[in-house]
Fold this protein.
Amino acid sequence: MKYVLDMYENVEYWIEIDDTGNALRQIIIGNNDIQISCKTDCLAEGIIELEDLEGDIKLLDSNCFEKKWKSIINNFEASWGEQKSQYSIGK
């Protein structure tokens, strides 16, 4: 796995990339908005080549990415809990 932070035009692109070059999870932070790939359709498509990314690229370790991921999904935990309570298992 590779974990990348791409800073481009005041937007942060946090990307988890598997060994084949595909994005598995992504966070986009900018313009007073946060998008996360488990909630919105913002996952990069196709093979990601680091040399093709624009902006300032920083390689991250998995702990840094996980910390950011968890800090963002925690904001949605209450609403997910409400939605889950409305549906029984198997629905």
